[in-house]
Write a structure and sequence with these properties.
This protein is of the alpha+beta class and 328 residues long. It has 14 helices and 9 strands.
Length: 328
């Protein structure tokens, strides 16, 4: 099927949905995903049920164990549930976790009328990653308490910075990591997916250095250390750094952790603070145990992010339209 006919079919499917369902599913597309790949697909089931799928055509080579896949699908499920609550609907989610070829069927959801009192329902639409500098204003006790309830462990910034520096050097020398990143960097700021220099907040010289890394396929250690400097500086200035843990790397636990991660990030934004994931130390197999040790044995680490009062606006990343991800 051509792209034109696929788009037309998606538009017809979207038009066939109840208006409230269209709004909920459209809002769910604002969920975060690694490299803004937006790998989710929604298949129409019977009645008010929808199948939630992860498309491995949008596969991340640096995620061979699908940790990011299940994590981002958990965030997608939670975004959908919060959006449903805002529409006076209940999202009944059932995990499926079945793979068929390049397709990963993660869950089924039924949208039904019902009142759900969730304080984050009104805030989820305003969740956005903020990559600007943060002030040294400490986090309020109410926010730190909410993060701890979501199993976020606040860790010493200095120790994290050393781990992140090592992970960055190792990763930028890894052709798979560089190739994975190159596949999702978009020179066009209006591209519907991926990450543009504007969205990443890159200066011109940083963008040129990134393009050089793509040409070379990897960076020598001195250049890798130099390129990692920006994240290290931003990390060092942040008043707080958090690690979110899962019970294990099993698919069900990762989906559940993704739901908590989405709630943590939404909670931070609701308090008018910002967050910025710096997951390179989690994704690097060499340094992930160091992050786990820093988190004090609270589980297996799945996300690392800095938190603080941002000095600039977040800026929303681009998204696909609902018609792009709907399937019959």
């Amino acid at each position: 099927m051509s792209e034109t006919s696929t788009a037309a079919t998606g538009q017809q499917l979207a038009a066939s949905l109840p208006a409230a369902h269209r709004r909920v599913l459209t809002a769910a597309l604002r969920a975060p995903s690694a490299h803004n790949a937006q790998p989710w697909r929604i298949r129409l089931g019977t009645g008010r049920r929808y199948e939630l799928h992860y498309d491995h055509h949008d596969y991340l080579p640096a995620d061979p164990e699908d940790r990011d896949a299940y994590l981002c699908m958990g965030a997608f499920c939670e975004t959908l549930a919060l959006a449903a609550a805002g529409e006076g609907l209940v999202a009944d989610l059932d995990l499926v976790l079945r793979r068929t070829g390049t397709d990963l069927h993660v869950a089924d959801v039924e949208l039904r009328p019902g009142a759900v009192a969730d304080p984050l329902a009104a805030a989820v639409a305003h969740r956005a990653t903020n990559r600007s500098r943060y002030t040294d204003e400490p986090l309020p006790a109410e926010l730190t308490g909410a993060l701890r309830e979501l199993r976020c462990v606040l860790v010493p910034t200095g120790q994290v910075a050393r781990i992140v520096r090592r992970a960055s050097v190792l990763s930028w020398r890894d052709r798979r990591f560089v190739g994975d990143l190159a596949a999702w960097i978009r020179a066009d700021s209006d591209a519907p997916d991926g990450m543009s220099p504007r969205q990443l907040g890159l200066a011109r010289y940083e963008w040129l250095a990134l393009r050089a890394a793509f040409v070379l396929g990897r960076l020598p250690a001195p250049l890798a250390r130099a390129y990692s400097g920006r994240d290290i500086r931003l990390l060092g200035e942040a008043p707080a750094v958090a690690v979110l843990c899962a019970d294990s790397d099993s698919p069900a636990d990762l989906v559940e952790a993704g739901r908590r991660l989405l709630r943590a990030w939404t909670t931070i934004c609701a308090h008018r603070f910002g967050y910025h994931p710096i997951s390179i130390a989690i994704d690097c197999p060499t340094t992930r145990p160091d992050v786990a040790a820093l988190a004090g044995g609270h589980g297996t680490p799945v996300a690392l992010f800095r938190i603080g009062r941002p000095t600039g606006s977040a800026g929303e990343s681009n998204r696909h339209q609902l018609a792009d991800v709907l399937r019959s």
